[in-house]
Amino acid sequence: MNTGSGVLDETRVKHLELLQVTISRFGTNSFLVKGWAMAVSGGLVTVAAGGAGWAVAVIALVMTSGFWLLDTYYLEQERLFRSLYDRSLAPESSQVPVFSMDVERYAQPVPWRVVALSRTMRLFYGTFALADTAAALFLLAAS
């Protein structure tokens, strides 16, 4: 739906804006999950060290793993919508239909393992997982 001058028509622009809002929402969700992961992991390890024992540190490790998986889902969806956005900018012959949000049909596939094991995810959640594991092992040895 590009015009001869190369300018996008109004409906295509609205579609791109809708995709941008969706991408932004997934980014915000990812940020909030990271905040919760920090608070929960730190809080549970503090409680464990305060006398609750190694089992609470293991619960912190399980919670960190759960947050890692949830954040992976949000970042995977964000990447899919970014791909859909890029495809929506393609020339008319291969463009995504206006207002389509079908990432499974039009976006490039994004393996969740690639997202989960990306450098930033490993550094962020791996640090908490190691700290939780170390706390559990230290508290187990001390008991």
Helical amount among residues, as a percent range? over 70%
Sequence of secondary-structure elements: HHHHH
Rg, rounded, reads 21 Å
By secondary-structure content and strand pairing, the structural class works out as mainly alpha
Shape: elongated
**How large a portion of the residues is in β-strands, by DSSP E?**
under 5%
Mean pLDDT: 91
Low-confidence stretches: 1-5
Number of strand elements: 0
Give a short summary of the structure.
The protein is mainly alpha-helical.
Topology (SSEs and partners):
Blueprint: H1 10-52, H2 54-88, H3 103-106, H4 112-116, H5 119-142
Characterization of this structure:
By secondary structure, the protein is mostly helical. It contains 5 helices and no strands. The protein has helices at residues 10-52, 54-88, 103-106, 112-116, 119-142. Helix 2 runs antiparallel to helix 5. The protein is elongated and about 70 Å long.
Features:
single chain; mainly alpha; 143 residues; disordered N terminus; 5 helices
